[in-house]
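Because showing beats explaining, we think one record worth quoting, sequence and backbone structure tokens together, and here it is:
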Amino acid sequence: RGEDIPLFLDNIIRGGKKAIGITGEDLFKEFLLNYPDCKIKILERIQWNDESAKFNKPTLCLLGPNGKSLDEMPKRVKVCINKKYSMISKKFLSILQYSRGMTFEKIYLSGGTEEAFEHKMCDLVIDVVYSGKSSEKAGLEVYEKIFGSDIVILGDKNEL
């Protein structure tokens, strides 16, 4: 899985072997927040440019009910987060907490974040939007873009 690539690669390089890995930039950013002393870096970024994608690339977003805005939400909300983005989301929500005075009860799921909204388990969702069709079907719209992801080739920090 893409989210495992940085951890495997870091361990291989720490073991003295040469290796490269390919994953999404969002998954690497999450890894860096969890392992800031890792031995890997981005060697090359490949721009993701798909016109069928809502934002031309996979984009981590804050989603909320259609027809509302973040300003209309209560100050205390439940937010369902795809757990592979827990650190990016925590950082983003801390900014919202500071700037808007909101507090968040966080629910982490491995998938089904939009379904959690449909079943009224949460008020907001943080997950990747690609085409936007599933979020629209669930009654959600993008409130804020958090992070747009390209493809990255990873390798040893010490290699030129």
Q: What stands out?
A: The mean pLDDT is 95. The longest strand covers residues 140-148. The radius of gyration is 17 Å.
